[in-house]
Amino acid sequence: MSRLPLSLALLAAAGLLAMGVSLALGSVPLSAAELWAVFTGDGEPLHRTLVMELRLPRTLAAFATGALLAVAGALMQVLLRNPLADPYVLGISGGAAVGALLSMLAGLATALVSGAAFAGALLSTLLVFGLAHGTGSWSPVRLLLTGVVVAAGWGALISFILAVSPGAELPGMLYWLMGDLSHARNPVMGWGVLVLVLLIAWPLGRHLNVLARGSLQAAALGVSVRPLEWTVYLLAALLTATAVTLAGTVGFVGLIVPHMLRLVLGNDQRIILPAAALAGGILLTLADTLARTVIAPQQLPVGVITAMLGVPVFLYLLHRSR
Amino acid sequence: MDKPLMQLEQLVIHIPDRAPGSPLSFTVEPGQCWGILGPNGAGKTTLLHTLAGLRPPRSGNVHLEGRSMAALSRREIARRLALVFQHHHDGFPATVLETALIGRHPFLRPWQLETAGDLGRARAALARVDLADLEHREVSTLSGGERQRLAFATALTQDPRLYLLDEPVSHLDLHHQVALLNIVGEKVAAGHAAALSLHDVNLAARHCDHILLLYPDGSACWGPTEDMLLLPVLERLYGQSLVQGEVDGVPVFLPKG
């Protein structure tokens, strides 16, 4: 625990720096002094509009999305007692994607697409919850298998929707499926959910540490396992649903961020949860900055960047840990 | 006389597809060490898990310090008894010291961080089982016997009135078998109590004052060690012919070839 304040302070500083970089870079690059002037109120009006109305909402949305996914991943890994679980493993993203694609196919407005994605994520959550609950014994393996099979079902539906959609709709749909922040305009809900879930989950940190040792061991050490597991599941589902609503299904953040932090900081969830929020936010902020600048004026979906960064980094870590 | 630590009332453990057999009714008093003997599959582990409240009995009741197990929260139970499992699952990386330290979990409030006192207890427990030098080692790098001693150290850190130990010495070398059972003996002499399943009749004869025999058909009998560890009884229990000897006034049993 002694490393908690220092590592969080370092990550918070890096987070501010990443947001600064993201705000400064773009079609009109700003210097640090110009950016500072915007925030103290005496910058040029053009710069002010650029930062406050275009870049800041997107940067805040990117940070929130990364933080939501990384915390969801950390919780899901403890819930399934598997360090390689990610927020999408239980089919939440598939349900959200089906909702989003159907509303795009119907030609609905962006706000309604987000709403449909959230509804699809919640539907999938309840479906997996109900099916895994079932009768008889319950275990992380049963939850995992239920989630994986439901996700496969969503995958088939997604392919079906793509196959029958008119060609003009396809690029937008593919961008959504890869994860894309260019339509993210309102980060308030993302930040609200993030802060709420962290306030609920952080005091549970030591319980989660014990739960990671297995449900029987946790019960023997005084943890009420079932209520805790369902709480964790619902919190992770809420985080994931909020993230996919903001930005579509951005991959790898929820898998590699908690995993890397565990390699560096150990497996104390009281450190991992806040650290994952900061590190996930940093990673996605920087990835989104790359996505909108690397081949500007064209924009890449941010999920392409996280996957391109995530796959080699993850393989390297896996290779090193043997 | 202290009030009994644990009281079993007509307890029938739940093993699917098995006849109820004989209900268990006895009390575990402070200062007693109960050995649980029986062949594979007789229900030793199921009984220990039932006594720890981890699975419901088919019928009957268990009382812990005079209160019904069903009325106690998991946390209240964990402050009074520790269960050391036979198998250990380490899904995530963790150090030896962190693993011992989780024994303090039932005593800390949700927001509370472990104090220097908690760390001291964990380090003292590791020293008792000869793991002090390994406190920074990854659990996954320990040998089977070291892992088992670490699980016992977690229980020592928890330091409950009642220790439930599921085959605590099955992976240990001879020295550490005796060392672990001597620690249990010290705890029992200090007014704690223990119930442990064992496969070694001779260790039970030396270290336990009461014995519970569990038969595969669900029947059971119990009593003071000297009344229970008799040649014909043990031969029937294990379905194995034995020879009996005596060392230092304690009976010794060996299987016939």
TrEMBL record, chain A:
Subcellular location, record wording: Cell membrane
InterPro entries: ABC_BtuC-like (IPR037294), ABC_transptr_permease_BtuC (IPR000522)
Major site of localization recorded for this protein: membrane
TM regions (residue ranges): 56-76, 88-106, 112-131, 143-168, 188-205, 234-258, 270-287, 299-318
GO cellular component entries: plasma membrane
Keyword Translocase: no
Pfam families registered for this protein in UniProt: FecCD
UniProt keywords, alphabetically: Cell membrane, Membrane, Transmembrane, Transmembrane helix, Transport
GO molecular function: transmembrane transporter activity
Family under the similarity heading: Belongs to the binding-protein-dependent transport system permease family. FecCD subfamily.
PANTHER family: ABC TRANSPORTER PERMEASE PROTEIN MJ0876-RELATED, FERRIC ENTEROBACTIN TRANSPORT SYSTEM PERMEASE PROTEIN
Annotated protein name in UniProt: Transport system permease protein
